Amino acid sequence: RVSREEYVARVLEREASAQPKEAARALAVTIRTYLLQNAAPRGECLAIDDSSQRQRVAPRPASAPTRRIAAWSADLVLAGATVNY
After folding, report:
1. Each residue of 35-73: pLDDT tens digit?
2. Residue 40, exposed/middle/buried by CB under 10 A (0-12, 13-18, 19+)?
3. pLDDT of residue 38
4. How far is the C-alpha of 63 from the C-alpha of 2, rounded, in Å?
5. Burial annotation 50-79 (CB, 10 A radius, 16+ → b, else e)
6. What residue stretches are annotated with the Sporulation stage II protein D amidase enhancer LytB N-terminal domain (predicted)?
7. Residue 38, exposed/middle/buried by CB under 10 A (0-12, 13-18, 19+)?
8. Under 8 Å between Cβ of 28 and 5
9. Which residues of 12-28 are buried (b: 16+ CB within 10 A; e: fewer)?
10. What mean pLDDT is reported for the chain?
11. What secondary structure does DSSP assign to 12-38, as a single string?
12. pLDDT surpasses 70 at 85
């Protein structure tokens, strides 16, 4: 189990990087939106497959730069459109 923002940071690290910063911020919002639209609630957690058909999650803790990007965009999600990967 990881926190939602750690999840966002790990996916960002696995699928892209923290640079360029504005692109990473936009991707973090997209990652979080996709998670909330596609994860299944399991108790107090959200569960989503780690696969190339979904979002790839880095197995190790996220780096400081990707954590900063996730923190900057915390709670931001896209409204009005379905996010597809």
Report:
1. 988 888 888 888 887 666 667 888 899 999 999 999 999
2. exposed
3. 87
4. 14
5. eeeeebebbeeebbebbbbbbeebeeeeee
6. 2-55
7. middle
8. no
9. bbbebebeeeeebbebb
10. 89
11. HHHHS-S-SHHHHHHHHHHHHHHHHHH
12. no
Separation CA 45–CA 62 (nearest Å): 19
Asked if 32 and 17 count as a contact pair (C-beta separation under 8 A), the reply is no
Sorted by where each begins, the domain ranges of the chain are 4-72
**For residue 62, what are the contacts with CB-CB under 8 A and spacing of at least 6?**
6, 9, 10, 12, 13, 70
Residue appearing with tokens 């400081």? 64
Residues comprising the chain, all counted? 85
Q: Which residue is it, tokens 């910063």? A: 21
